[in-house]
Amino acid sequence: MKILFASSEVSPFSKTGGLGDVAYALPVALAKRGHDVVVLSPLYGCVDRRRHGLEPVAHDPMDFRLWLAPEKENMRFAFVEAQLFDREGVYGGYEGDYADNAARFAFFSRRLLRAAQALGFSPQILHLNDWQTAPGTLLGRPEGPRTVLTIHNLGYQGHFPLEEARHLFDDGLVPAAWTHWGKLALLRGGICTADLVTTVSPTYAREIRDTELSFGLGEELRALGDRLVGILNGIDVEAWNPATDPHLPAHFSADDRRGKAACKRALQEELGLEPSNAFLVGMVTRIAGQKGLDLLLTALDTLLASDLQLAILGSGDPALEEELRRAVGRWPGRFALRLGFDESLARRIYGGSDAFLMPSLYEPCGLSQLHALRYGSLPIVRATGGLCDTVQDGRTGFFFEAYRPEAMVEAIRRAEETWRNRQGWEEMVDRAMREDFSWDASARAYEEAYARLVPDPADPGKNRRDASR
Ligand code: ADP
User: Fold this and answer.
1) What are the distances in angstroms from CA 403 to CA 175, 288, 365, 416?
2) Is the CB of 371 under 6 A from ligand 1?
3) Could you tell me if 43 and 34 are in contact, meaning their C-beta atoms sit under 8 angstroms apart?
4) Residue 458 confidence class, pLDDT cut points 50, 70, 90
5) Distance 369 CA to ligand 1 centre (A)
6) Alpha carbon nearest to ligand 1 atom 4, residue
7) Which of 50, 129, 294, 386 lies in disulfide reach of 365, CB 3.0 to 4.6 Å?
8) Is the CB of 314 under 6 A from ligand 1?
9) What domains, with CATH codes, occur in the chain?
10) What distance in angstroms lies between residue 285's CA and the mean position of ligand 1's atoms?
11) What pLDDT band is residue 61 in, cutting at 50, 70 and 90?
12) 461 has pLDDT over 90
């Protein structure tokens, strides 16, 4: 099948969070299964053209230029260069989100098929992601490809003042589906226009349909019926492998975990934590309300008053960052905080911590807990969204239900107690590290979803049967 995968970020070229990882790994997994996939993303100022060997593509003059990375894993990564993207940030800078984001991503979304054409590629499936590329659903039927929209996080819906709609609709007429509460609503428009909508875990698919996590879109999502599908994300198990990870000071695997202790000692030293045998809890996170940092801030002093160490790497909300920074001063040697985005340190935290904390208010899928499982750091998570689908309470990690600091502290204490009983802990680590979250199973599920939309020439009857469901 020919698939054009459009994303506002794609690792390793640009990344602010999980979407960047998915936009690399899922297309690669689909290409491995024999599909012809092109990934398209904007060429931001922060994308290092030289390091990635990007080359301009010769094409008819248009209002953008197209660049290509050297073919990787049997597939093409292409980038749209335009003035709107020629600045450092992906979505914004120190002063917050860029004011012209509606214009930026409408511009990108409207040029997806023209960019594909410049590559001589005519996709059967246009796979879009989140509000930034949701307007790409307007390029679909009747003449265009079938469209799939994946919701990675319903908390971000792309709401803008209505006058921004001029970037999307030349005639100035805005279809009702593309508005909500008097605003231009890009994700809502995409949900109502796409042929199929997916989200990144089965539990989250249920939650956004039936609970307050629908963020005001419950009706639209319920109306999709079986055209809303939850497919779990995977991780790139080759790139995330503690047996070979060049960022780790020592290596380990499920079969031989001896290197993990050295990773812990090195992490303590790197972060200025006491070199003691304390229970070391790590966090690598966007610093945002969604991630449960308010719970952590409330419980921090209680937690650190015992023999526990906490290592946090994150960046985001300046007010939350400031509160965390203030707490560091109270707990020297026990609480290490690094603000910023640092993939190398992230890996050393996964590798060196005993447990990994994710007290999320909601979590569509979550990749961090998958990295943590693979690196033998047992996740302590709130039972929500994809965390329910990937962590098993008492077997590979620890759950808490209520979004309350006491519930989180209780789960951390339970984990710590298990850790003190070495054998039970080691059995859990063994199980966690052997879990398979490779992309192959997810890629197969996406393939089935695409097959519902695109006629299979080998069995035309099959798609008629599907269409009539
Ligand atoms: P979200 O997409 O909501 O931010 P996920 O858990 O799905 O959360 O994905 C987060 C990804 O980004 C993980 O790969 C995590 O390791 C990485 N990450 C988050 N914050 C940082 C940071 N400050 N430095 C390095 N990596 C980070």
Assistant:
1) 38, 15, 18, 20
2) yes
3) no
4) low
5) 10
6) 17
7) 386
8) yes
9) 2-234+440-451 (3.40.50.2000), 259-436 (3.40.50.2000)
10) 5
11) confident
12) no
